[in-house]
Amino acid sequence: MSFARLGLSAPILDAVAEQGYDTPTPIQLAAIPAIIEGRDMMAAAQTGTGKTAGFTLPLLERLSKGKPAGNNQVRALVLTPTRELAAQVAESVELYGKNLKLTSFVVYGGVKVNPQMMRLRRGVDILVATPGRLLDLFNQRAVKFDQLEVLVLDEADRMLDMGFIHDIKKILKVLPAKRQNLMFSATFSDDIRNLAKGLINDPVEVSVAPANTTAATVEQRLHPVDKAKKPALLSHLILQNDWKQVLVFTRTKHGANRLVKQLEADKINAAAIHGNKSQSARMKALAGFKDGQVRVLVATDIVARGLDIDQLPQVVNFDLPNIAEDYVHRIGRTGRAGASGHAISFVTTEEAKELADIERLINATIAREVVPGFEPSNQVKETDLNIKAKKPKKAKKPREFSSTDGAAKVAQPRRSNANSPAKKPAIGQKPAGEQAANKPAKRRVWRNKPKPVAN
Ligand code: AMP
């Protein structure tokens, strides 16, 4: 199936061809014809699936047929949770709409409001906005919605997570009742369905990848390590493997700043991107990372969500996220659009609960690998392992146990029943069989023994 058969006109098809896309992604196949037809839509699609083009292309197609926006008017409104995502969506609108006469603009907080008000006076066909700034502009009468035809909520789940529900409700109240509504979300939680109830009419529902499935092209690995040794381990891996572009996640803004300092002390060029940074600093860090001047970008979850960086080869979870779903979003930054990528997580024994949540969510056990020189000192008590250190039977070697040059494999789906008790080694521990064999620590990948299959 080609883009030409989805109902898009020549100027849009030319722009798409210029991007080098020849086959629509599954979300694009499902969304483009339905949106052109004017249907409401609820789509479960994560970043990396081509969802932005999935709603932008048909939006451009529809708007290209109507009357241009009058003064202060907006014909399509795209709401996004973060400034970065807003900027990226606006970039896509410009790119795919370059052969059309439509106008577009992006507004978000953290920058001066006056230039935004000035530009909005002439009206825009497509406005991309974060909710807070949009409300400010509306309250100052800089933007009007009488001509509004389409509303898009992008990453709706994240907007709710970030507490934008009240802003969104206020915005919905001032929009004309007759409009097309498109909602994109990584997951369809109850909250999302509740929001959709009052908003979306008879929607086409699309789900392109089962929620919370980690991309098959991402090789995942865990490095058990002591907390204090995490920065040194990161520098060691970057230098040893000669990683050129690494996105690193920390749990806190302060932690991100501190890590940048530590990396720079190791002569590794790094920048932080998080909510306490000014918008210009965030944009500068991202641009530097994209063009190769910044080798390591250290980010917190909220800001990193939705970042589109082509073919990012390496993601490191310096801290595990508190919310298991964020693990999926984080590693979704690599291995995108079919490219292979690596996601490494540093795990301390204190993070055992977060790890258990993540493995339950992705329904897989991630390969563990202790890096020589960084063996965790804080060994977990045997009772915590839920495994008796008895001598292994001969045949009971660890299921997968291979020496490696650093390449791990994709996490394996669990074959077990979720109700059966977990019998797996804790972080920092080798499988029972290996402990008994008392082999010297070598660089190895090992996997946990699968739990028995319950009938
Ligand atoms: P998104 O999920 O919207 O963040 O898009 C992820 C990436 O896929 C972006 O870098 C797009 O440029 C790229 N992309 C979108 N559609 C296609 C397509 N049909 N073929 C190849 N790449 C695409």
TrEMBL record:
It catalyses: ATP + H2O = ADP + phosphate + H(+). Residues 1-29 form the DEAD-box RNA helicase Q domain. Residues 32-206 form the Helicase ATP-binding domain. One of its GO terms (cellular component) is cytosol. The gene is rhlE. HAMAP family: DEAD_helicase_RhlE. GO terms for molecular function: ATP binding; ATP hydrolysis activity; nucleic acid binding; RNA helicase activity. A motif (Q motif) lies at residues 1-29. One of its GO terms (biological process) is ribosome assembly. This is ATP-dependent RNA helicase RhlE. Residues 217-378 form the Helicase C-terminal domain. PANTHER family: ATP-DEPENDENT RNA HELICASE RHLE (PTHR47959:SF13), ATP-DEPENDENT RNA HELICASE RHLE-RELATED (PTHR47959). Belongs to the DEAD box helicase family. RhlE subfamily. It comes from the Bacteria. It is found in: Cytoplasm. Residues 388-397, 440-455 have a biased composition (Basic residues). CDD domains: DEADc, SF2_C_DEAD.
